Amino acid sequence: MESVVDIVVISYNTKNLLLACLQQLALYTDEPHRVIVVDNASRDGTPETLQKTIEEYQWSHVQIIANLHNVGYAKACNQGIKAGTSPYILLLNSDVLVTPGWLTPLIDCMKEDSKIAVVGPKMIDEKGRITGAGIVGTYEKHVPRGYLEVDAPGKYEEEEDCFSVCGAAYLILRANLPVLGLFDEHYFFYFEETDYSLQARTKGFRIVYCPKSKIYHLQGKSSQDHGQLRRYFEESESYFRRKWMPVFEHNKGMNDL
Hints:
Helices cover 33% and strands 25% of the residues. It is an alpha/beta fold.
C-alpha cells in the first residue's frame, strides 16, 4: 500500500531512545507510512545498531541517512523531507514515544481546512507534565503554553489555532513546500519550527494544536551540555530576530496574525 506519511526522525546520540521510538511507531501507527531516520553523526553506534535492528525486524519501511558530521536540526529535517514522497510529512524527535491511534487525529485535523499548514499534538513528559500544548503569543514574545504544568482532564483539550506548535512532533503538507519552502538551514538548533510556522502565517496559513493526539516527549536526552545548548538557543534567537524584525516593522499589524 502506498505510503501516506513520511515520518522523519532526527537522531543524535540517542540510540536506545530511538529504538524505543521506532518500536512504538511500528506498533501504534495505523496509516501506511515510511520512516526516514536522519542520524547526525552519533558517536554511540546508532547507525550500526539501527541497521541490525532493521534487518532483524524486517522493517522495509525504515531507511537511514547517516551524516558524517552533525549538520544541525534544520538541515537534517530537510534531508529527510527531500528523501520522501508521501503527501504528509511528520517531523519527529527521537525522544518521542507515540501512543495508540496518535497519527489519525493529526491528519484528520489538517484535512479540515486547506489553509492549515502545520498541526501538532499534545505532549507530556514521563512525569505527566505538559511539554507541548501550542506556542502562544506574538513575534516579539511567544511561549509554550502550560509548560511543565501537570496534565489533567480538561486541560488544554480544545483544538485551536496557535502562533506555533512544538517541533518535536510537527506535521506539514508536502503540497505546500513550493509555497513555504524547506526549513531555514541558518538555524543549527532551536527556532527552526517557529520560523517555518511564522513563514506559513505570513502567507495566510493556519497553525493548529490538536489535543486529540497525545504523545510522550522525553525532553533533553540528546545533549547534557547545557552551556552548548544555551549558545545554540541564543544564536538561533538572534538570527530569528534579525530575519523577522524588518518584516514586522514594515507591517505593524502582522504581530496580530
